[in-house]
Design brief:
By secondary structure, the protein is of the alpha+beta class. Helix content is 19%, strand content 47%. It contains 2 helices and 7 strands, in the order E-E-E-E-H-E-E-E-H. Strand 2 and strand 3 form a beta hairpin.
């Protein structure tokens, strides 16, 4: 089975009430259209995961991020490929999170994290994020 290596940005901020919030995006294309995910994408040859994440977020959301600690590497078998996803805490450096490829996006509080229909690989990460919010 083919392995696809990707990175995901767990972008955190604080809302007006002082609660931590996480940015989630809804896919606008492909087999998993309409599923919710953490933004990111494929690692290209010669890139570190951190470089790939900065490039992908700039391409997809027109936003510059700072990449923090690795939360986890998720290994997940989809029907036609194996996904290996490095997931990092991130913060916005500058930009307004402009949706270029996604259908929708929202900021979620800890209580709201399970309110969207996450893609299967992303589901496994949600509990770890909740524990660290």
């Amino acid at each position: 089975m083919k392995t696809i290596r990707v990175v995901a940005a767990i972008i955190k901020a604080v809302n007006e009430q002082g609660e931590p919030i996480i940015f989630a995006t809804q896919r606008g294309y492909g087999d998993f259209k309409d599923g919710w995910e953490f933004p990111g994408g494929k690692i290209e040859d010669g890139e570190t995961p951190e470089q790939a994440l900065k490039r992908e977020i700039m391409e997809e959301l027109d936003t510059e991020i700072a990449v923090g600690d690795l939360i986890d590497t998720i290994e997940y078998d989809y029907p036609t490929f194996h996904l290996s996803m490095d997931c990092f805490w991130c913060e916005i450096v500058k930009g307004d999170l402009v949706l270029k490829e996604h259908e929708a996006a929202k900021w979620l509080t800890k209580a709201e994290l399970t309110s969207v229909d996450w893609l299967p690989a992303d589901v496994t990460l949600v509990e770890k994020i909740k524990k660290n919010m």
